[in-house]
Amino acid sequence: MNKIQDLQLLIEKAVSNLNYPASPAELYEPITYILSVGGKRMRPALLLMACDLFGGNVEAALNPALAIEVFHNFTLVHDDIMDNAPLRRGKATVHEKWNTNIGILSGDVMLVEAYKLMMQVETPILRQVLTIFSNTAVGVCEGQQMDMNFELQNEVAIDDYLTMITLKTAVLLGGALKIGALIGGAGDADADSLCTFGEQLGTAFQLQDDILDVYGDPDKFGKQVGGDIISNKKTFLLIKALELAEGDAKKELNRWLQTTDFDNTEKVTAITNLYNQLDVRKHAEKAMQTFAEQAFTALNQLSLPEERKQYLRNFADSLLIREK
């Protein structure tokens, strides 16, 4: 088995070797730019890992893995436009560096290029792989639309939030693993189980992200702690707090959500204190653990040697045991 870090390096090298036409420059330069600004390359590495797990040729899975990475970055380009985000991984977003129309059109070409790469699988599984990829892509778009809808809704149900993060974040992990498994020669049952493992693990990971945004150490977490609170982002913690809060706690929470002129540190402290009073972290951690357990249940169903299942367990643990 290849180490996940080695697979990430393999993807990094392959990404750097992608070549696009020189003209029109405004169409293709943004693609090279967004693909060059970094990222962990985790999603395509998972496709290679799944192929490797079932004894497949990792090199044969490289183009489909690149398809996952190009598709993922396409969604980032369009998401940044929707969010009016100025920065991505510390650098100017495509629509800021060029303009919105270029961002839209370059993103469109990235989606087409992703399909061209994904089509380079062996003919016997081509139709099945393209169906999985298409369904995955639709799911990601559905999740993004739900996320945007939530910004305009005063009330969001926990179940709807869990559906959203599964679609927006986790289905791409599951889809990548399923495609990689099929390329590696896995049967449909194993491919489905590995897909479920990825989706459940991805949802658990996103719930952990919600928790760490409030309770993490910024130096270890790698993000601004409290960013979700400052922006009133509807995370599991906020939704659960709105569900549980009563009386003065509810008034205080709503006051902070409706206030537009505030000190960031004061708001983060106040809402974190409310979260502590309502014990929402416990609820979030319980939900995270439930999805993690479902991921491990799916993993146990795989018809793989025990040492390869353990490889997946260790990988899952490395994702879910992050520095607080």
Provide an overview of this structure.
The protein is mainly α and 324 residues long. The protein has a domain at 1-123: Farnesyl Diphosphate Synthase, CATH 1.10.600.10. The chain is built from 16 helices and 2 strands. The protein has helices spanning 4-16, 25-36, 42-53, 62-83, 94-97, 100-118, 123-152, 158-183, 188-215, 218-221, 227-230, 236-244, 247-258, 264-278, 280-300, 306-320; strands at 87-88, 91-92. The chain has a two-stranded antiparallel sheet. A hairpin with a 2-residue loop joins strand 1 and strand 2. The longest helix is centred in the middle third of the chain and has 30 residues, at 123-152. The radius of gyration is 21 Å and the shape is globular. It starts with a helix and ends with a helix.
Quick description:
With 324 residues, the protein is mainly α. Helices cover 76% and strands 1% of the residues.
Number of contiguous helices: 16
SSE pattern, N- to C-terminal: HHHHEEHHHHHHHHHHHH
* Secondary-structure content class: mainly alpha
CATH topology-level name of the domain at 1-123: Farnesyl Diphosphate Synthase
For the record, the CATH class of the domain at 1-123 is: Mainly Alpha
What is the global morphology?
globular
Low-confidence stretches: none
Question: Would you count the extended β strands for me?
Answer: 2
Give the full name of the CATH homologous superfamily of the domain at 1-123. Answer: Farnesyl Diphosphate Synthase
How much helicity do the residues have? over 70%
Strand content bin: under 5%
What would you say the CATH architecture of the domain at 1-123 is?
Orthogonal Bundle
- What is the radius of gyration? 21 Å
On the 0 to 100 scale, the average pLDDT is 95
Order of strands across the biggest sheet? 1-2
Gap from first CA to last CA = 30 Å
